Amino acid sequence: MKKPASAVCSVLALTSICLLPLFSQQQTTPATSAPEYGSNASKGVPAEDTPAQREELGRLKAKAEEINAADRAAHNEAVTPSYNFHYGKANPFVPGNITVQGEGFIQPGAFPSAQYCGTCHQDAYSQWRQALHSNSFRTPFYRTSVNLLIRDQTRGIAFARFCDSCHNPIAVLSGGLTEDSKVNRSQMDSDGLTCMTCHSVVSLDSTNGNASVEMGIPSVIVDEKGNRIPGEVPFAEILRHPERHSKAVMHDFLHKPEFCAACHKANLPATLNDYKFIRAFTAYDEWQQSKFSQRNPLTFYTGDFTTCQGCHMKRNPVTLTEYGAKNGTFASHRWLAGNTAVPFYYGFDDQLKKTIEFLRSGNYLNVDIFALKKQGEDQLIAPLGRASYTLAPNDAMEAYVVIQNKNIGHSLIPEVRDLYEAWTKFTVKDASGNEIYHSGFLKPDGMLDPRAHSFTNRPVTDEGDFVDSHKVWTIHSVAYDNSVQAGRSVLVRYQFRLPADIRGPVTLTAKVNYRHLRQSYLNNIFGTDHPAYPVVELSSRTRVLQIGENRPEAPDPADNPDWMRWNNLGIALLDQFQYAEAVEAFTEVIKLRNDYADAYTNVALTEIVWEKYDSARMAIRKALMLNPNSARALYYDGLLQRRAGNTEQEIADFKKVVEMFPQSRDARRELGITYYQQQDEHDAMEQFEALQQIDPDDLTAHYNLSILYRRMGMTKQAADQQAMFIDKKVDPGAPTYSLNYLRSHPEISTESIPWHMHSDILNEAKGLDHGN
Amino acid sequence: MAIERAERSRFLLRIATAVPGILLLGLSADAFAANTCPWMNEASASGLLGGNAKGAYIATSQSPTASCTFTQQAADGTRTLRIVVTRFEDDPHAGFTKRKMACQSEPTPLKAIGNETVVCALNDDSSSEGIRAIGRVRDQVFEIMIITSLADDPILTESALKSQIKAAAEQVSGNLF
After folding, report:
1. Rounded CA separation A94/A90 (Å)
2. 3 state SS of A364
3. Which residue in B has a C-alpha nearest to residue A341's C-alpha?
4. pLDDT band (50, 70, 90) for residue A25
5. Which of A28, A582, B115, B130 has a CB 3.0–4.6 Å from the CB of A574, allowing a cystine?
C-alpha cells in the first residue's frame, strides 16, 4: 500500500518528467542568447566571493540537493514497481556496463538540457546538434536495428539496454527501457548523447567498453570546497566561477582515448546473445596498437602521438558565442568521422560537407598501382613509374594495387563494418574511355558488385546466414573480415586482357570508395524507395600505360617513396602468407635504404613466422647493429633467443622492450610466458596482471593467471580468470557456421581467402581456376 | 545444444503463458488495453499534451489499421493525441498520398521523419484547434493528430503544436522503423 505523501510525490515527479521542455529537432542553434560575461571571468581570474555570495551558494547547494533527492526518490517510486529487472534487482542496466551514483534510477530531469549548456556554448551546441552524438538514438539507421531486438520473441526491450547504454544512456539510467515505461522519452530520444551525459561521467570502470562508465549526479558547478552541486544553476554562478564549472564538467579523462573506449569498444556478452563473448569492435584497441598511441613497439612505421580526440575533436576557430573558447578556438563537437548517412538524412549540409572533407583529408590512405605482371612471365614490373617495360595488344596482365592504411588511427573500416561499405573500384579504359575491365561498380539497384574487393566483414548466424539486419545477438561467427588494420597494407590483384585491336594508351584507375551504409541495409530500413546515399572517394591513383614502350616517369607528389612502396608490398604479402615474396619485397627496401633497421626486422619477422629461424637471426642481428635500441628488433630477438634456449638474453630483451614501452601488450605477454616457463610465478603474474590492465580481454593472461592464481591458493581469482578464458575463447565450432555461409556464397568465399585474384579472364578462358 | 534447448524451453514457456491471454482477448473482436501503445508511452504523450494523459490502444487482427488515443483532461477542456497506423502492402506511397488528401491546408514537408512526412492544420472542427502529421515508414502510413478543445490553450499554443507534432512524429516513426 502506497503512503499518500509518497503517492503525491510520485505524481509530481511524473508530471515534472512529462513537462520537460521540448525544442525543435532541426534547430541547430540554441534559442536563447548568451548572458553577459563578467570582466573577471573573461580574464580567466577566479572571482573572490563575498560572505553573502558564499552563503547564497550554500543555500543554492542545499536546495538543489534537496530537490534532487526528492525528485529521484519520487522517480524511483514511479518507475521501479513496473520495471523489468530481467537480470536481477542488483543489475538494472545489464547487459550494458553503465552505472550511476546513488540508489536506483536517476530522473531524466537531473540532466541539464543541451539548450541550457548551449546558452553559453553556442558553437558546441550547433555542432553537436548535427553530430552523431546528438543523433545517437533517433536515426532510422539505429532504430531499425534496436527495434528488432525490442520485438525479438525471446528477448525484448530489457535486452536493448545493451545498445542504449551508449546510444541513449539517459533512457537506460532513468529506467525507461522496460515494457511498461513510465518515462517521457521525447527529449532524451531526440538528444541522444547530450552534453551532460559525457560531462557527467565521473569515472571509467575499465576499458571493457559496452559503456563502462560511472555516471555522476549531473552537476555544472562545484562549491568552494569542490563539492558538486546537482542540476542547473543560475548562469551568474558559472560566469562568476568558470573554474568551478570546469572542475564539475571537465575531467582529465575526457581528453584520453580510454574515455572514448567506453563506447567505441564493444563485445556481445552472453547476457545478450545467450551464447558467449564475441568481440564486436574495438576502435580503442586498434588505436592502442597503432603508431599513434606510441604504446606499441611493433608497428611498421612510427608517428606522432595522437589521441582519438586529436583527429575527431580538432580545435577550430569559433563562429558563434562560445565561452569555452581559448584563443578563439574550441574543440570540435562535430566528431567528424565516417558517417555521411545521418547528415544526409537530416539535411545537415554543413556536417555532410565537413565529413566528406574530413574523409578526404589527412592523407589517411595511400593507393598505389604498384606493379604489373604479364601472364606467363615470372618477372614483376615494379614499381610502376620507375620500371621500364613494354605492352602489346592482347597481353593478359595482372595489376598489383597496394592500399595502405597510412594515417588512420584504427582499421579501415572501423567498428560496425557489417553496415558500412568501403571497396576498391578498379577500372581499365582505352584511349576513348571504353571500359576494358571494371571491378567495384554499383549496379542499377545500388548494390555493390558482389565480386568487388571490399573492406568489410560478414558476420553469420549459427545457421550460416549473413546477419544482414545487424541483429548482433544472432552473430555466432565471422565468415571473413577484410578490414585493413592501422599502418598495414593490403594487396589487391586484378587480372585483365588488353584488346587485340587496342592502339592508344590504357588508363588504370584504382579508388577506395566509401558508402555509409551498405545498400541492402538501407533497403532494410527504408524499403527500396530511398535516395542514393553518398559514395565518397577516399583516395585514388591513376596510371596511364602506353602500348609499346613505357619509360620511368616523375612520381606524383602524393606517392610514397619507392622504399615505402616496396615495404608496403612486403607487409601486404606477409599478411597474405606469401613469405618468400614478402622477403623479396623487404629485400628491395634494404637495397634502397640499407641504413633502415626496420627493413631487416621486417625480413626477420617474416622468416620467424615462416619458421626460418637461422636466416631470421642474421637479419635481426643486422637490425640491432644498425639500431641497438630498436624495441621492435629486440622483441623479435627475444623470440629468437627463446627458440635458441638463451633464456637470460630472452628475458633481457623483453625487459628492455617493457622498459621502453610499458604498455606493450605483446612484450608483457611474452615476458610473462618466459617467466612462467622459468617457474618464476611472481614475476609471471606481475606481467600478466599488467597485460590485463592494457587489454582486459587478453586470452593468454586469463589462461595463465587462472593457473598461477590457483597455485597461489587464490581460488576465487583463479576461477574468475578461468571463466573469462572460457567465455572469451573462440568457440571451436564457430568456423563451421562460417563455412556454411561461404559454401553458398562462392564470390564471398573467394574474398575470404587472403590470396585471391579479381579477374574476367576466368570467363574468357573457362579454364583458369583462380578467377573472382 | 544446451543453449538451443534453453531457448526452446523459454520460448515454449512464453507460449504457454501467452495462450490463456490470447484466448481471453479472443472473446472480444477488439483488444483494448491502456499503456500498450506500441508507438508512444503515456508519459511521452503526457509530455506532449502538457499534463497526465491516459491512453488506449485499439488493434484488430482483421484490419491493417491500429490506433492509439491519449486524452488529457484539463479543468476546462480536453487535449487529445491520436495516432493511426495503417499498413499498405501494395503501394505504400500511394497510401500516404491518399491520406495526405485529408489535409485541409497546404501540407508542409517535415524533413527527416520516416520515409516521408508532412504536417498540416486540422480545421475540421471549429470547436477545437489542432495539427496533423501524416507520414510513412516503409509500408506503414501513420497519421498523428494533436487536438485541444481549450479556447486559447495556454499550453498547446500554435507554436507549441508545431513543435509537439514534430516530436510526436519522431517518436512514432522511430518506433515504426
Report:
1. 9
2. coil
3. B112
4. very low
5. A582
The H or E element containing residue A402 is strand A396-405
What architecture (CATH level 2) is domain A349-560+756-765? Sandwich (2.60)
Cell of A569: 608490398
Cell 555542432 maps to which residue?
A127
* pLDDT surpassing 80 at residue A4: no
CB contact under 8 A, B177 and A347: no
Distance from CA of A568 to the nearest CA of B (A): 43
Nine-digit cell string for A349: 549540409
Task: Quote the domain boundaries for residue B9.
Answer: 1-29
Report the distance separating Cα A84 and Cα A86, nearest Å.
5
Residue A138 CB contacts under 8 Å (≥ 6 apart), including other chains: A25, A189, A190, A192, B170, B174
Map residue A618 onto helix, strand or coil: helix
B76 and B145: one domain? Answer: yes
Confidence check: pLDDT of A702 > 70: yes
Half-sphere exposure of A122 (CA within 13 A, CB side): 15
Q: What is the pTM of this model?
A: 0.91
Q: Is pLDDT at A439 greater than 50 in this prediction?
A: yes
- CATH pick for A581-728 out of 3.40.1280.10, 1.25.40.10, 1.20.1250.20, 2.40.320.10: 1.25.40.10
Q: Are residues B136 and B79 in the same domain?
A: yes
Query: What is the predicted pLDDT for the residue at A24?
Result: 38
| Per-residue pLDDT tens over the stretch A525-566 | 999 999 999 999 999 999 999 999 999 999 999 999 999 999
pLDDT at A747 over 90: no
Pairwise CA distance, residues A207 & A260, whole Å: 9
The single-letter code of the amino acid at A550 is N
Question: Alpha carbon of B43 to those of A14, B70, B165: distances in Å?
Answer: 7, 10, 16
State how far residue A710 is from chain B, nearest Cα, in angstroms. Answer: 29
Interface test with B, best of A186, A268, A276, A521 (most B CBs within 10 A): A186
Q: What is the CA radius of gyration of chain B?
A: 19
- Min distance B167 CA to chain A CA atoms (Å): 6
Q: What is the CATH number of the domain that holds B90?
A: 3.40.1000.70
CB contact under 8 A, A184 and B166: no
Question: Which set of grid coordinates corresponds to residue A566?
Answer: 616496396
